[in-house]
From TrEMBL:
<protein>
    <recommendedName>
        <fullName>UPF0102 protein GH975_10395</fullName>
    </recommendedName>
</protein>
<dbReference type="InterPro" id="IPR011335">
    <property type="entry name" value="Restrct_endonuc-II-like"/>
</dbReference>
<dbReference type="InterPro" id="IPR003509">
    <property type="entry name" value="UPF0102_YraN-like"/>
</dbReference>
<dbReference type="Pfam" id="PF02021">
    <property type="entry name" value="UPF0102"/>
</dbReference>
<dbReference type="InterPro" id="IPR011856">
    <property type="entry name" value="tRNA_endonuc-like_dom_sf"/>
</dbReference>
<comment type="similarity">
    <text>Belongs to the UPF0102 family.</text>
</comment>
<dbReference type="GO" id="GO:0003676">
    <property type="term" value="F:nucleic acid binding"/>
</dbReference>
Length: 118
């Protein structure tokens, strides 16, 4: 695992620790299929939330790094997840940018960052 991958995984794990405050259930961490990976699959009372987490030196850089190509791969992987986990809940894609260093992490959570049909 590269240093960058290790920092990204540490940021994901830190975020998972903060989920108790958001009234969501973690369904999967790093759900992978041949088409890609979804960092977090969460469930709240109304939604299945597919979350892409990005760690970068700045919050802006983290959020901007989730380009159309990455969104396309996330959606393709989400279709596979849904085929294996049928649900009537609305699917939502959120992005989370994380920057800083532990214990002074900073985050920006963007709900409804994009839609399945974008």
């Amino acid at each position: 695992m590269s240093d960058r991958q290790a920092r990204g995984l540490a940021a994901e794990n830190w975020l998972i620790g903060r989920l108790a405050n958001r009234r969501v259930q973690l369904r999967h961490h790093r759900y992978g299929c041949r088409l890609g990976e979804i960092d977090l699959v969460l469930e709240d009372p109304d939604h299945i939330v597919m979350v892409e987490v990005r760690y970068r030196s700045s919050l802006t850089a983290a959020i901007q790094s989730i380009d159309w190509h990455k969104r396309r791969r996330l959606k393709a992987c989400a279709y596979v997840w849904l085929a294996n986990n049928p649900t009537d809940k609305v699917i939502r894609f959120d992005t989370v940018g994380i920057s800083g260093t532990p214990p002074n992490w900073r985050l920006r959570w963007i709900p409804h960052a994009f839609e399945m049909d974008d």
